[in-house]
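User: Some background: our group keeps a shared notebook of sequences we're curious about, and every so often someone picks one and asks for a predicted structure to add to the entry. Today it's my turn. The entry only has the sequence so far, pasted here. Could you supply the structure so I can complete it?
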Amino acid sequence: MNNEPIKLTAPLTEDVARSLKAGDEVLISGTIYSARDQAHKRLCKTIEAGEKLPFELQGACIYFLGPSPARPGNVIGAAGPTTSSRMDAFSPTLIQQGIKAMIGKGYRDQKVRDTLKKYGAVHFSAIGGAAALLSKKINAAEVIAYEDLGTEAIRKLQVLDFPAIVAYDAHGNSVYDR
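Assistant: Of course. Here's the predicted structure to add to the notebook entry:
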């Protein structure tokens, strides 16, 4: 592991994703998108139908997040990660379409791991239980799709130094294997 966190700017390139190793600590800045299972399901159906997606997937980073309502003066409520395995059925399709990173918590199945390796993408883990602190790293949040899903709507987020750990890298390695 590196002594200093690696600063990343989202969206990511494949070269950047492939340069990361399991266990690397990162600070992500830039544009990321929130989406949970129901939004993932709709994105995959949109891809199957050959329709236009609500945001560009190439290089995108998707945060598995369903935030709580924002308090007055805040851009977002508590913003902790959702269990990643809930997205396992949908992630390979989205990775094949160009996303380069996901943020969640917990394990991913072998199909997701194989797809990360094949397409040069990574999975980050964010610290569960630190939702209020993580929300302070989000400077802007705007619902851009599937508003009817409430907290599961897709949001475009602007983040600054959002902390995460490379849990699964693009070389087939995982912090969970250690």
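Suggested note for the entry: The chain has one domain: 6-173. The radius of gyration is 15 Å.
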